[in-house]
Amino acid sequence: MTVWKEKHTRIFLMEVLCVACLALAAGLVLTGVRESRIRSLLFEHDAAIASSLLEQGVARQTVAEAVLGTEPQDKGRELLYQIGRSETADIRFMPAVYQFCAAERIMVSLGGALFFLLLFLSVFRYLYKKDRIYREAAAVIENYMENDFSKSLPELYDGTLFQLFSRINFMAAMLKTKQETEKRVKEFLKMTISDISHQLKTPLAALSMYQEIMLSEPDNVETVAAFAEKSGLAVARMEGLIRNLLKITRLDAGSVIFSKKYYAASEFARQAVEELTDRAEKEGKELILSGREEAEVFCDMEWSREALGNVIKNALDHTSEGDRITVAWEQTPLATRFLVTDTGEGIAGEDIHHIFKRFYKSAGSRDRQGTGLGLSLAKSVLDGQGGTISVESEAGQGTIFVLSFPTE
Predict the structure, then answer these.
(1) What's 258-406's CATH class?
(2) How many angstroms separate the CA atoms of 42 and 47, rounded?
(3) Where do the CATH 3.30.565.10 domains begin and end in the chain?
(4) Partners of residue 325 on adjacent β-strands
(5) Which residue in 16, 28, 113, 191 is a FRET match for 105, CA 20 to 30 A apart?
(6) Between helices 265-273 and 301-317, what is the axis angle to 10°?
(7) How many other CB atoms are there within 10 angstroms of residue 335's CB atom?
(8) Portions of the chain given CATH number 1.10.287.130
(9) How far apart are CA 314 and CA 319, in angstroms?
């Protein structure tokens, strides 16, 4: 039974056992004293009878036989009955025995009172400690109800009560974690809405301006065509922003189930750069694929291809005409790694620890295209598949992104 594991219960039972042992010892001592007193009383009684008989001239041998009880006792009983003494006679007519019994009653009463006093103190001490534990626990639980988790219930000992306290503390920790998570979610939503409104504000303002220009010059075909193209780019930017936000929201909510299979790493890389080849040629940048054809990657093709594509887009955004972007891959027993290396401007030391944050843009890239969500989305996709993404860069020395996909 777990009740024996409680420290206070064990102490209480030990105290009760000690009190019982003390009572037993006291009873044994009292019994010894009682036997000694009875022997003394009997000796004095026999001495008084012997003295009286000797004074009356009775022979010593006869007195000795009477005291030792070797003579027939029927005549003695008859004599005692004649003088009013019997087994049922009132003890008050036997002064010595009466005094002995009175003293014995007092000792038994005092011993019993002491025993019950010690037992009462032990029970009171046990119940007081229990009550103090319950009151402290009630105060802590009230703090939990008021979202104050600074104190916890004691769980240093074994026993049912402390097991209950342990479960309550675990429940409080879960509530605290849930509360902190909800707080972070609210803060994240607040920041996200603020960032979205800020990100949409620029293209919406541009669209409004383009519309006013086209309305002011409806007959100028060249002006209408130019600003219609700019309007299309602004709309595309907003569509990309909203699409990426929806994807990140799905990843955060855990509603994305990755369907992972083995694919040829070369085919995976080619699909990732397929839509970016024209842009690279248009901007005068060299896009190179390098790796062994037999290498394989274990991933969800659709999501992972977009993650790698976002990293390559980031490289295109931060390189100039004549720069080179290399997408290489290598397979190890534990993972398949894709290295996206560029010869661009690199990343400043104060920015490198923030590039995976949502909507983050360094001071030197805020006037460039992009929403600041591509790298954040790539990291969420890699994290969701048990992979990793890392970066090495120095300002003016280019950048290397490493995407690692575990083999299983």
Answers:
(1) alpha beta
(2) 8
(3) 258-406
(4) 287, 342
(5) 16
(6) 50
(7) 18
(8) 178-252
(9) 9
For residue 298, the cross-strand partners are: 262
Q: Which residues contact 111 (CB under 8 A, 6 or more apart)?
A: 23, 26, 27, 30
Count the Cβ atoms, other than its own, within 10 Å of residue 166. 14
Q: Measure the CA dihedral 379/381/386/390, to 10°.
A: -20
**pTM for this predicted structure:** 0.52
How far apart are the C-alpha atoms of 373 and 310, rounded to whole Å? 9
Q: Output the tens digit of pLDDT for each of the chain's 408 residues.
A: 444 555 666 676 777 778 777 777 777 777 667 666 666 766 666 666 767 767 777 776 765 666 566 555 555 555 555 555 555 555 555 566 656 666 766 776 777 777 777 777 777 777 777 778 778 888 888 887 887 777 887 776 666 777 777 888 888 888 888 888 788 777 766 776 776 676 677 777 777 887 888 888 777 778 778 878 878 877 877 777 777 777 777 777 677 788 899 999 999 999 999 888 988 999 999 999 999 989 999 999 989 998 999 999 989 988 889 899 999 999 998 999 999 999 888 888 788 888 888 776 665 554 555 567 788 889 989 998 899 999 998 888 889 999 999 987
Q: Are 309 and 275 in contact (CB under 8 A)?
A: yes
List the structure tokens of 342: 């560029």
Q: How far apart are CA 274 and CA 289, in angstroms?
A: 11
Is CATH 3.90.1150.10 correct for 178-252? no
